[in-house]
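re: ur question from yesterday

yeah so i grabbed the chain u mentioned. its 266 aa long if i counted rite. heres the sequnce exactly as i have it in my notes:
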Amino acid sequence: MPVYGVVMWFSSAQITVSPKIYAAKMVRTCQKQADYSPPLRRKRARPGLAWGSLSLHENIAMQLLYQTHSPYARKALVFAHEAGLAGQLEVIHHETSPTNRNEAVYAQNPLGKVPVLLRPGLPPVFDSDVICEYLDSLHTGHPLIPLQGEARWHALRVQAVAKGIADSGIAVRWETSRRPEALRYPPLRDGHTQKLLASYDWLEQELDVDGAVHVGHIAVATSLSWLEFRELPGFRNQRPKLTVWYQAFITRPSMLATPLCGETQD
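ran it thru and got these C-alpha coordinates back, copy pasting raw so excuse formatting
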Protein backbone atom coordinates (compact mmCIF):
# COMPACT_ATOMS: atom_id res chain seq x y z
CA MET A 1 0.00 0.00 0.00
CA PRO A 2 1.51 3.37 -0.96
CA VAL A 3 2.50 5.70 1.87
CA TYR A 4 1.29 9.18 0.98
CA GLY A 5 3.70 11.61 2.54
CA VAL A 6 6.55 13.69 1.27
CA VAL A 7 9.59 15.51 2.60
CA MET A 8 9.70 19.04 1.22
CA TRP A 9 11.75 22.19 1.55
CA PHE A 10 9.68 25.31 2.12
CA SER A 11 12.29 27.36 3.94
CA SER A 12 15.42 26.31 5.77
CA ALA A 13 13.62 23.51 7.62
CA GLN A 14 13.03 19.98 6.42
CA ILE A 15 9.57 18.64 7.25
CA THR A 16 7.54 15.53 6.58
CA VAL A 17 3.90 16.28 5.89
CA SER A 18 0.60 14.57 5.18
CA PRO A 19 -0.98 15.03 1.74
CA LYS A 20 -3.51 17.63 2.94
CA ILE A 21 -0.88 19.69 4.76
CA TYR A 22 1.52 19.28 1.84
CA ALA A 23 -1.10 20.49 -0.63
CA ALA A 24 -1.99 23.50 1.51
CA LYS A 25 1.67 24.42 1.94
CA MET A 26 2.26 24.05 -1.80
CA VAL A 27 -0.55 26.47 -2.60
CA ARG A 28 0.60 28.99 0.03
CA THR A 29 4.16 28.76 -1.27
CA CYS A 30 2.96 29.55 -4.80
CA GLN A 31 0.90 32.48 -3.56
CA LYS A 32 3.69 33.99 -1.47
CA GLN A 33 6.70 33.15 -3.61
CA ALA A 34 5.38 33.23 -7.19
CA ASP A 35 8.50 34.98 -8.43
CA TYR A 36 11.00 33.18 -6.18
CA SER A 37 13.19 30.22 -7.07
CA PRO A 38 14.76 28.83 -3.90
CA PRO A 39 18.41 27.86 -4.08
CA LEU A 40 19.37 24.22 -4.29
CA ARG A 41 19.42 22.87 -0.75
CA ARG A 42 21.25 19.75 0.30
CA LYS A 43 20.59 17.38 3.13
CA ARG A 44 23.17 17.65 5.88
CA ALA A 45 25.49 14.66 5.72
CA ARG A 46 27.13 12.92 8.66
CA PRO A 47 30.46 14.48 9.67
CA GLY A 48 33.21 13.53 7.26
CA LEU A 49 30.88 12.56 4.40
CA ALA A 50 30.07 14.66 1.37
CA TRP A 51 26.66 14.49 -0.31
CA GLY A 52 28.11 12.66 -3.30
CA SER A 53 29.55 9.89 -1.11
CA LEU A 54 26.29 8.89 0.57
CA SER A 55 24.56 5.63 -0.33
CA LEU A 56 20.85 5.00 -0.89
CA HIS A 57 21.22 2.11 1.52
CA GLU A 58 21.72 4.68 4.30
CA ASN A 59 18.07 5.79 3.78
CA ILE A 60 19.07 9.31 2.75
CA ALA A 61 16.29 11.08 0.91
CA MET A 62 16.56 11.79 -2.78
CA GLN A 63 15.89 15.30 -4.06
CA LEU A 64 13.35 16.08 -6.75
CA LEU A 65 13.90 19.38 -8.52
CA TYR A 66 10.31 20.35 -9.21
CA GLN A 67 7.97 23.02 -10.48
CA THR A 68 4.48 23.43 -9.08
CA HIS A 69 2.96 24.25 -12.48
CA SER A 70 4.74 21.65 -14.64
CA PRO A 71 2.75 18.64 -15.89
CA TYR A 72 5.98 16.70 -16.35
CA ALA A 73 7.26 17.34 -12.83
CA ARG A 74 3.87 16.53 -11.39
CA LYS A 75 3.78 13.23 -13.25
CA ALA A 76 7.03 12.18 -11.57
CA LEU A 77 5.79 13.17 -8.13
CA VAL A 78 2.38 11.51 -8.55
CA PHE A 79 4.23 8.38 -9.69
CA ALA A 80 6.37 8.53 -6.53
CA HIS A 81 3.22 8.71 -4.41
CA GLU A 82 1.61 5.79 -6.23
CA ALA A 83 4.80 3.75 -5.82
CA GLY A 84 4.97 4.48 -2.09
CA LEU A 85 8.25 6.38 -2.44
CA ALA A 86 7.18 9.99 -1.85
CA GLY A 87 8.46 9.89 1.72
CA GLN A 88 11.99 9.45 0.37
CA LEU A 89 11.89 12.70 -1.60
CA GLU A 90 12.87 16.24 -0.81
CA VAL A 91 10.81 18.29 -3.27
CA ILE A 92 12.46 21.57 -4.25
CA HIS A 93 10.58 24.10 -6.37
CA HIS A 94 12.49 25.77 -9.20
CA GLU A 95 11.26 28.18 -11.84
CA THR A 96 12.53 27.30 -15.31
CA SER A 97 11.80 28.64 -18.78
CA PRO A 98 13.63 28.72 -22.14
CA THR A 99 13.89 32.50 -21.65
CA ASN A 100 14.77 32.43 -17.93
CA ARG A 101 17.90 30.37 -17.25
CA ASN A 102 18.06 28.62 -13.86
CA GLU A 103 21.70 27.88 -13.10
CA ALA A 104 20.93 25.40 -10.30
CA VAL A 105 18.87 23.27 -12.66
CA TYR A 106 21.35 23.57 -15.55
CA ALA A 107 24.03 22.29 -13.18
CA GLN A 108 22.12 19.01 -12.93
CA ASN A 109 20.43 18.76 -16.36
CA PRO A 110 21.98 20.22 -19.54
CA LEU A 111 18.46 20.86 -20.86
CA GLY A 112 17.79 23.20 -17.93
CA LYS A 113 14.43 21.56 -17.26
CA VAL A 114 12.64 19.92 -14.36
CA PRO A 115 11.97 17.35 -13.09
CA VAL A 116 15.42 16.16 -12.10
CA LEU A 117 15.98 13.43 -9.52
CA LEU A 118 19.16 13.79 -7.47
CA ARG A 119 20.44 10.55 -5.97
CA PRO A 120 23.12 10.38 -3.27
CA GLY A 121 26.39 9.28 -4.79
CA LEU A 122 24.91 8.71 -8.26
CA PRO A 123 24.34 10.81 -11.40
CA PRO A 124 21.10 12.81 -11.66
CA VAL A 125 18.13 11.29 -13.49
CA PHE A 126 15.98 13.19 -15.98
CA ASP A 127 13.36 13.56 -17.61
CA SER A 128 9.98 12.49 -16.17
CA ASP A 129 9.79 9.26 -18.20
CA VAL A 130 13.23 8.14 -17.03
CA ILE A 131 12.53 9.19 -13.43
CA CYS A 132 9.38 7.08 -13.43
CA GLU A 133 11.32 4.10 -14.80
CA TYR A 134 13.92 4.54 -12.08
CA LEU A 135 11.39 4.90 -9.28
CA ASP A 136 9.57 1.79 -10.48
CA SER A 137 12.78 -0.15 -9.93
CA LEU A 138 12.96 0.87 -6.27
CA HIS A 139 9.72 -0.51 -4.85
CA THR A 140 8.45 -4.06 -4.36
CA GLY A 141 4.79 -3.46 -5.11
CA HIS A 142 2.89 -3.99 -8.35
CA PRO A 143 4.92 -2.41 -11.18
CA LEU A 144 3.42 0.81 -12.45
CA ILE A 145 5.22 0.21 -15.74
CA PRO A 146 4.26 -3.30 -16.88
CA LEU A 147 7.30 -5.46 -17.46
CA GLN A 148 6.37 -7.25 -20.66
CA GLY A 149 3.80 -8.07 -23.30
CA GLU A 150 1.03 -5.93 -24.72
CA ALA A 151 0.28 -4.45 -21.29
CA ARG A 152 3.71 -2.80 -21.33
CA TRP A 153 3.40 -1.43 -24.84
CA HIS A 154 -0.11 -0.14 -24.16
CA ALA A 155 0.97 1.73 -21.01
CA LEU A 156 3.96 3.27 -22.81
CA ARG A 157 1.83 4.19 -25.80
CA VAL A 158 -0.67 5.97 -23.56
CA GLN A 159 2.22 7.73 -21.80
CA ALA A 160 3.52 8.91 -25.18
CA VAL A 161 0.14 10.41 -26.10
CA ALA A 162 -0.08 12.09 -22.70
CA LYS A 163 3.37 13.61 -23.09
CA GLY A 164 2.42 14.76 -26.59
CA ILE A 165 -0.70 16.59 -25.41
CA ALA A 166 1.34 18.37 -22.75
CA ASP A 167 3.87 19.35 -25.42
CA SER A 168 1.12 20.62 -27.73
CA GLY A 169 -0.56 22.47 -24.89
CA ILE A 170 2.67 24.30 -24.14
CA ALA A 171 3.01 25.16 -27.84
CA VAL A 172 -0.53 26.56 -27.89
CA ARG A 173 0.30 28.71 -24.85
CA TRP A 174 3.35 30.13 -26.62
CA GLU A 175 1.18 31.16 -29.55
CA THR A 176 -1.65 32.61 -27.44
CA SER A 177 -0.12 34.19 -24.34
CA ARG A 178 3.59 33.62 -23.71
CA ARG A 179 5.07 34.94 -26.95
CA PRO A 180 4.78 38.72 -27.70
CA GLU A 181 1.61 39.19 -29.73
CA ALA A 182 3.44 40.46 -32.81
CA LEU A 183 5.48 37.24 -32.95
CA ARG A 184 2.60 34.76 -32.60
CA TYR A 185 1.82 32.40 -35.48
CA PRO A 186 -1.86 31.33 -35.53
CA PRO A 187 -1.40 28.41 -37.96
CA LEU A 188 1.04 26.83 -35.50
CA ARG A 189 -1.47 27.33 -32.67
CA ASP A 190 -4.20 25.74 -34.78
CA GLY A 191 -2.02 22.80 -35.75
CA HIS A 192 -1.25 21.96 -32.14
CA THR A 193 -4.91 22.40 -31.20
CA GLN A 194 -5.77 19.74 -33.76
CA LYS A 195 -3.22 17.43 -32.15
CA LEU A 196 -4.95 17.95 -28.81
CA LEU A 197 -8.42 17.20 -30.15
CA ALA A 198 -7.27 14.11 -32.05
CA SER A 199 -5.48 12.82 -28.96
CA TYR A 200 -8.56 13.33 -26.79
CA ASP A 201 -10.55 11.25 -29.28
CA TRP A 202 -7.87 8.54 -29.23
CA LEU A 203 -7.92 8.41 -25.42
CA GLU A 204 -11.72 8.15 -25.42
CA GLN A 205 -11.39 4.98 -27.49
CA GLU A 206 -8.13 3.45 -26.28
CA LEU A 207 -7.62 4.30 -22.59
CA ASP A 208 -8.10 1.25 -20.35
CA VAL A 209 -10.30 3.04 -17.86
CA ASP A 210 -11.00 -0.08 -15.76
CA GLY A 211 -7.45 -1.40 -15.62
CA ALA A 212 -4.92 -1.31 -12.79
CA VAL A 213 -3.14 2.03 -12.45
CA HIS A 214 -0.09 2.34 -14.64
CA VAL A 215 2.27 5.06 -15.83
CA GLY A 216 0.03 5.91 -18.76
CA HIS A 217 -2.89 6.71 -16.45
CA ILE A 218 -0.66 8.94 -14.34
CA ALA A 219 0.66 10.74 -17.41
CA VAL A 220 -2.82 11.29 -18.88
CA ALA A 221 -4.30 12.57 -15.62
CA THR A 222 -1.47 15.01 -14.95
CA SER A 223 -1.49 16.29 -18.53
CA LEU A 224 -5.27 16.76 -18.68
CA SER A 225 -5.23 18.46 -15.29
CA TRP A 226 -2.57 20.88 -16.49
CA LEU A 227 -4.49 21.62 -19.70
CA GLU A 228 -7.54 22.54 -17.61
CA PHE A 229 -5.37 24.53 -15.21
CA ARG A 230 -4.13 26.62 -18.15
CA GLU A 231 -7.62 26.86 -19.70
CA LEU A 232 -6.48 25.30 -22.96
CA PRO A 233 -8.77 23.47 -25.44
CA GLY A 234 -10.76 21.01 -23.36
CA PHE A 235 -11.45 17.30 -23.62
CA ARG A 236 -14.79 16.89 -21.85
CA ASN A 237 -17.21 17.61 -24.67
CA GLN A 238 -18.48 14.36 -26.27
CA ARG A 239 -15.89 12.22 -24.49
CA PRO A 240 -17.89 10.75 -21.59
CA LYS A 241 -15.69 7.72 -20.89
CA LEU A 242 -12.53 9.80 -20.60
CA THR A 243 -14.31 12.44 -18.52
CA VAL A 244 -15.75 9.96 -15.99
CA TRP A 245 -12.38 8.24 -15.62
CA TYR A 246 -10.57 11.56 -15.16
CA GLN A 247 -13.02 12.81 -12.55
CA ALA A 248 -12.42 9.67 -10.51
CA PHE A 249 -8.63 9.67 -10.94
CA ILE A 250 -8.13 13.23 -9.74
CA THR A 251 -9.61 12.26 -6.38
CA ARG A 252 -6.75 9.85 -5.70
CA PRO A 253 -4.52 10.88 -2.77
CA SER A 254 -1.54 11.17 -5.11
CA MET A 255 -3.32 13.82 -7.16
CA LEU A 256 -4.77 15.66 -4.18
CA ALA A 257 -1.29 15.84 -2.63
CA THR A 258 0.24 17.54 -5.69
CA PRO A 259 -1.91 20.54 -6.67
CA LEU A 260 -0.95 22.73 -9.59
CA CYS A 261 -0.33 26.38 -8.83
CA GLY A 262 1.80 29.34 -9.90
CA GLU A 263 2.61 31.21 -13.10
CA THR A 264 5.38 30.66 -15.60
CA GLN A 265 8.31 33.02 -15.07
CA ASP A 266 9.54 33.82 -18.60
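noticed a couple things. Residues 77 and 86 are 7 Å apart (CA to CA). also The chain has nine helices and five strands.
anyway ttyl
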